[in-house]
From TrEMBL, chain A:
Residues with the 4-aspartylphosphate modification: D52
InterPro entries linked: CheY-like_superfamily, Sig_transdc_resp-reg_receiver, ST_Response_Regulator
Keywords per UniProt: Phosphoprotein
Domain Response regulatory: from-to ranges: 3-119
Source organism per UniProt: Pleomorphomonas diazotrophica
Protein name, entry field: Two-component system response regulator
Phosphoprotein recorded as keyword: yes
Top-level taxon in the UniProt lineage: Bacteria
Coiled-coil ranges (or none): none
Amino acid sequence: MKTCLVVDDSSVIRKVARRILEDLSFTILEAEDGQQALEKCQETMPDAILLDWNMPVMDGLEFLAQLRKLDGGDTPKVVFCTTENDVGHIARAIRAGANEYIMKPFDREIVEAKFQEVGLL
Amino acid sequence: MSPAEYDYLRQFLKSRSGLVLSNEKQYLIESRLLPVARKAGLQSIAALVAKLKEPRETALAEAVVEAMTTNESFFYRDKTPFEHFTQMMMPELLKARASQKKIRIWCAAASTGQEPYTLAMCLKEMESKLAGWRIEILGTDISNEVLDRAKAGTYTQFEVQRGLPIQLLLKYFTQQGESWTISPQLRSMVQWKKFNLLDSFASFGQFDIVFCRNVLIYFDQATKVDILGRIAKTMAPDGYLVLGAAETVVGLTDAFKPAPDRRGLYVPATAATAQPAPRFSALAGAARV
Ligand SMILES: C[S@@+](CC[C@H](N)C(=O)[O-])C[C@H]1O[C@@H](n2cnc3c(N)ncnc32)[C@H](O)[C@@H]1O
């Protein structure tokens, strides 16, 4: 079974994402900010990371930059999932090494389409 | 609505657009047609039916037909047809048409435009191989409403997140608030025309590729057979037909046969005999240059 780390400071979003991704047969890990997420990744690299942008302690973009520097940090597929939905933010995320980008609000269909897009389904 | 009114509407839709409704779709008719009736100042389905029976009620008739269509579509729908398109159909046709340098593509139920625009993006991504070529994409649909949306090329945030890779969104669309519009360059690659598949294809000329996806499912067997037969006649013998994931020619017509190992892709049944000749001459032509 593939693992997906869901990184979002909103417990509601984490819950919604967990439900959708579990239905797609992922094992879910959760983190509330970039710092926690980085620690989880240092323990074990997940196959996928669903990543919010604005979070306390360490934001999504900085987490991504740190992740890609880690040993094996280039393997997880990173899908941003954020309300920052303008071209500028999207372009920055892609340049920083994100594989896909979900603009909130999202639903089951979009998550499925985007995870398919990066080859996880 | 009375059984007689329901029967009238079923007959009406079948003859106008091919749409077949089973016995118990009254709820569907009511939910789709009551708004149409109200907009025309009519209070019920009964009044709508009475009005449709008047001669020259063409605007209302069109509105009824349009309201009953199902227009769902998305970019790169089912993915594989577009892989077949870039990896097989286009390379084969680039060889076969090397002397004419012209390829014609028809999206026969284009809806809001995602399918023709996906083809336009595929072509743009292989641009370097297409210098000097003329590639036409014709998008047709029975509904004016969806064609207007297709021409505008503007999609919601939800629509651009179903199947469209994020890099292509950045590359080919511009953003206005929550909506995204496809670039003028891609828009100019597609021509649009209102067209009913029940009408004659005679004015279209010959196509090399036909996408006819997720529309035959709404028709009965006889209508499917008729349309497939007429598509075959409007296609180059070495052309390609693409159907939707839930559609097939098998058991319906001998005019097409499945392309080996390419799900959803069909070739004219004459292809096996007709193909070598034009290919050979195209190659010979190229060799002479
Ligand atoms: C579900 S959409 C398919 C869109 C696209 N081909 C795809 O697969 O995503 C079906 C379209 O067929 C159109 N349609 C239905 N009956 C038709 C007819 N008789 N002639 C032309 N178009 C028709 C509808 O208006 C609708 O836009």
